[in-house]
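Protein 1 of 2
SEQ + STRUCT:
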Amino acid sequence: MQQLEHFYESTPKAVGFIERKTDIPSHTINLYGPPGAGKTWLVLDYINRLPKKRRLYVDMSDLRLDVESLSGNLQEFIESNDIESVVLDHYTPKLPLPKCRQVITVTQTPFKQNPFTPLLEISSLDFEEYLAFERRHQSLEHSFSQYLRCGSLPSMAHVSDSLLTMELHKNIRSIFPSEKEVALFRYMARFQGKPLTPYQLYGIMKKDYKISKDWLYKSVNEMEKRGVVTWLHKFNQPKAAKKLLFYDFAMPASLYFEKSLMGQLQSIAAKKLQKRAQTLYYTDKIDFLDYEERRAILLSPFANQQSGATKVARIAQELESYNIKEVLILTIANSFAFTFEKRAVKAIPFYEWVLQD
């Protein structure tokens, strides 16, 4: 009981907590999301607002914790102290879920072993949330430039420029504990925002490392389960290479001296679009195809009206075949609009677009 008494009496504080777009409800849930997204801080803010004698926060990653002893004493402790809300952070199924009015499990992957537990996902910071965290705000354009450099993890918003790369690499090593996993992530980083198959990745990596195809496929699948990477399908070609996207776009960009602006923008745009577009794809000429809305999204950072018109004209055949009604061009700083063959074409700076509902 000693370890439970410790957790009961000394719940950590979410010092300096900044409100997120995700709110924790007052019922049992599984809060899940990728590493470093801010799950612990969110749940600590919630639990600390409850009556002290009716709550219990247990961090299962605490190295002092004996899970076997915890399993034998947790339910009794909850009942003897009339505890109403229990948070099991870094939860592992080694611990049977206790019976309580509210149980919050915090995991990286969705905990689906109990089908009656609702799931609540928290993702890394979008640009609007980042603005609340950032302290160096000068202008939207400058803040977006910093967002590209810092990435989407809350812990990175206050890091000084001189330490950014070092801290990003620390994050990578904390997410991937083995050197082989770090190497795999580094190979994948080259393809941020580009089509790739695990088989192609295996063919590239096996030249330098003794790896099995099974290990690589399993590792890539685990990254997807943890929300570290996502994949975008090619329209009408389910077997084609999928576009590789990262939940934090700055970590892969930090692994090479050459900058990959387009890759970073691809990951940021996909994160926003996938929240609403149920039918989002890419094609050979269209960065993002929202087929249900018949909308094409093109990334063209330095486009002006003339180059934008040229770009749209080059994909006229695809626009016609997909019955596209609207074309959106995302630029770094330019805005313009025109009509092309009865289709509305609009260009808007990326940093303005990501703030739109």
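Protein 2 of 2
SEQ + STRUCT:
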Amino acid sequence: MKFKLTLIIFLFFVVKFYAFTPKDSIDIQIDSISKWTNTNNIQLLFTQNSFVNWSAGGNNSMAGILKTKFTKNFKSEHITWFNEIKANYGLNKEDKRELRKTEDLFEINSTFGYKKVVESNWYYSAKFNFRTQFSNGYKYPNTDKPISKLFAPGYMFLGIGSEYSSKNHTLKIYLSPVTNKTTFVLNQTLANEGAFGVKPAIYDENNNLITRAKKTKMEFGTLITSEWNTLVMENIKMANRLSLYSDYLHNYGNVDVNWELNFDLKINKYISANVGTHLLFDDDVKHKEDINNDGVLDILGPKIQLKQLLGIGFSYLF
């Protein structure tokens, strides 16, 4: 129902856009190469530890992360259209321990903006975001039961609002009072547990399944995002992204937070270093822990999730 309402409002925005905008101002000129810009970046980052007769102890380890980002942007006097695809995957191997996943992300972003006044920094905007992962996630060292899978979870945001963009587009602030958030948990086992906020399965007193869980959850609320990209000093770039979302119909004011802060340090044309942090908080994502040491993960309350990265490796920009 909430998705249909979002779609209706979105279509109304589109109709209003074309009905009340002079036709000569909507001059996209898709065939104009000068108005399209492409930026593609591939990074392969490494960390490694090796010990020989080290009195303090330690395990030999090696880790690697492949990070890719492809962008294609359009800009004219009245219109901007930003498109981005990100894919990251990382693995870690230590002595006497199984191969473990350290990074796993697939994300698509697209933002379309229109402004009537050329001198203005504010756009009428529509934003789309989708993210998921590639492979199973585990609560290590337990690798018998995945706690996440491909499209379990998957998140999709679709909404309309207004975006402020600085003249050089290094700072963007997006405000949307009309955003639909859909959570996908397409693995039935995880969905039955109520993972990632979907409605769980119903069982009788003998633990027999009565009703299977729903694999999707629809929300409708407010989305605020900001993006700040700047050159801190020569050869050091900072990218700061923050996303805040609150559902109107379920505990409005309880905010989901997604905050990424990354510094790219360029050493030369092909060698770079990366330092970054990623903070997440979602009230629907419950922390899992084997508190009884019986091999069964107990579902606890939500917790702040924090990830930190420091790596050096090869970078190719094209």
